[in-house]
What does this fold into?
Amino acid sequence: MNPDIVKERQNATFNVEKLTNILDGSPEKTRRRREIESMVLNDPDFQEQDPNFLSRSERYDQAVRKSAQMILKLREFGISDPDEIYYYKNCVHPDRPEPLDLHLGMFLPTLLNQATPEQMDRFFTPAWNLQIIGTYAQTEMGHGWWRCSQRASCSATTPTVLPALTSEDWRPQATFDPATQEFVLNSPTISSIKWWPGGLGKTSNHAIVLAQLHTQGNCHGLHAFIVPIRDMDTHVPLPGIVVGDIGPKFGFSEVDNGFLKLENVRIPLDNMLMKYAKVEPDGTYVKPPSAKLTYGTMVFIRSMIVGQSALALAKSCTIAIRYSAVRHQSELKPGEPEPQILNFQTQQHKLFPVLATAYAFTFVGQYMKQTYNRISGDIHEGDYSGLPELHALSAGLKAFTTWAANGAIEVCRMSCGGHGYSRSSALPDIYVEFTPTCTYEGENTVMMLQTARYLLKSYSQARGGQQLQGSVSYLSRLQPQPVSAGVPPLNIQDLASLVQVYQLRAANLVELAATSIQQELQLRHSQEDAWNSSAIDLVRASDAGLLSVPQALQVSAHIKELLIQLRPNAVALVDAFDLNDKKLNSVLGRYDGNVYEHLFEWARHSPLNASEVPPALTIIVIIKHNQLIGSFFPRSTSLSTST
Ligand SMILES: CC/C=C\C/C=C\C/C=C\C/C=C\C/C=C\C/C=C\CC/C=C/C(=O)SCCNC(=O)CCNC(=O)[C@H](O)C(C)(C)COP(=O)(O)OP(=O)(O)OC[C@H]1O[C@@H](n2cnc3c(N)ncnc32)[C@H](O)[C@@H]1OP(=O)(O)O
Ligand SMILES: Cc1cc2nc3c(=O)[nH]c(=O)nc-3n(C[C@H](O)[C@H](O)[C@H](O)COP(=O)(O)OP(=O)(O)OC[C@H]3O[C@@H](n4cnc5c(N)ncnc54)[C@H](O)[C@@H]3O)c2cc1C
It folds into this structure.
């Protein structure tokens, strides 16, 4: 154990185990989490080669092998609780999305939420047993954006009268054919090819495909269809299915994100998910109670992503803070030993806010999950009243927490200096695997605009005298104040006072956006144009805070005091996240703090060190021997074969 890190733990002023129990929810939950963790981490079937030293295809193969083992083990140990599956999966594939994520995270939940009992028997049971492997295909090459209900322009015609049609006409179509009781699915244009779905490229044999429903000559907007894409015995693509991998990406190397072109693919009538919307055998369309229910799985994952932001931050600051406790640099005072870099105020100022945010997001993630479970329970009972708030909350928190975490991971990486740039630190991987959360499940700006839409509606209800409930109740209570009204009193030591100032600021910003829309409306006469011209106000928190200059200085001084208070407990606070070394997989973030010897050991495994003179370098040796520098290429090749 590194002596610095030992000393850090001795200096802590609280019981780490108790805090871990609070983060987990209870001592029993901590015990169970550790039990699951040891099932995976001590299981030789999950041994792996360090993916940093593998090619993409090797990484995919290794991930598939581990995922298949995972499914067998989940069955063997009878683990079926979604939280426990999720936890088990995160230990099997720490920090790395894997080919079955979409099957577990979106295919199964979409069936649970949108399939009829008959469809549950036909699809969910085999999918649970991994005979069916599914993905969720919504995004297309040309559009990540969809409308949940039909618009007047939605047309079933072929592309011959382009100017009269909108982009919605060129989306994938599912046209009901009553003669055969089938839907015929087509991707009418290149841009309507499904693009991005995880596990689609090579792994899945079924896809939930989101397409425009056409029946009896009418278009009814976005609906979900279960489309078999590969033969269940041979895994070869079925007729009319053009499918494959979209190629290497920034990260997600283990995942076969794919493309899918549908060419007159026929599926039976009862492959449309019909818990809510229905098509009768004669082609009659039965409306769902709410068109937005089609988007339910995205709301589920958005809610989950809030907790993922917390986990990514917890990992990043554990690595950076432990490393900063064992790393020494630059004398603070001449002649004295070099201090731990964690003693530099600037290092604390980088890392302690990340630590605080990791804690805050952990609790926000728990709140989001409870809210999701409560409101989706109501929805199952037929009460849809909570859906708008759930949508606004999950969209806004998904965007807010992922943006914040995305920036903070990079702060942690840079705070580790050069070693943060090495893949051995794990920080580059955490970043590349996390950063697409800002894009997928709804691009963050687009999600913020959805939340803003809800806030503006709530604002106008509050101005109309309605008493609002839930997360927007502050709009009824607070009267937005013009900046000229001066600054509100603030006690920065008092949480209630801080919350009040935040609420007032939020109310002011909503009012600002509403005013902008009103003004734009007078100029542009179209609600949509006025909305777009106010989009910056809608999304961005204004730079005008509500604090006076002396108050801002007071905050700054208080932050410095808090840094000093936190310093003795910094390592203990990250220890409380209880991230097992194997799961953290970071040379810099090791629990024992023995960084340097393991950094050296890790580097020696680099494939470039497999031989002292890599084969490619023999050409240099040959060139040197033949003194060919200056006239090398064609002749050096023939010389190399002759020597
Ligand atoms: C049983 C289970 C077993 C095991 C599972 C257990 C554990 C899990 C284990 C493992 C899980 C593993 C990993 C996690 C899984 C996956 C993560 C990994 C990878 C991620 C892969 C990524 C996938 C994707 O990205 S899928 C594609 C996502 N795409 C999007 O999100 C598109 C975003 N676009 C939209 O949402 C819409 O197009 C839109 C932007 C909202 C616009 O739509 P529309 O034009 O219809 O909307 P309007 O603006 O006109 O608004 C109309 C109206 O509707 C309201 N609205 C909109 N959306 C919603 C909604 N979702 N819910 C409710 N209401 C909504 C909107 O507010 C308007 O209301 P008003 O008219 O009242 O104002
Ligand atoms: C790693 C990864 C995995 C994915 N997995 C899946 C999957 O399994 N299944 C699936 O279906 N999809 C998947 N996706 C696709 C993902 O859901 C989309 O990329 C995402 O919804 C964003 O859509 P887009 O790419 O079309 O972005 P665009 O919408 O084209 O965004 C580009 C820019 O335009 C701006 N913009 C767009 N619309 C508006 C607007 N109305 N107002 C203001 N600004 C706007 C955005 O803010 C952004 O800056 C995945 C993507 C990634 C990166």
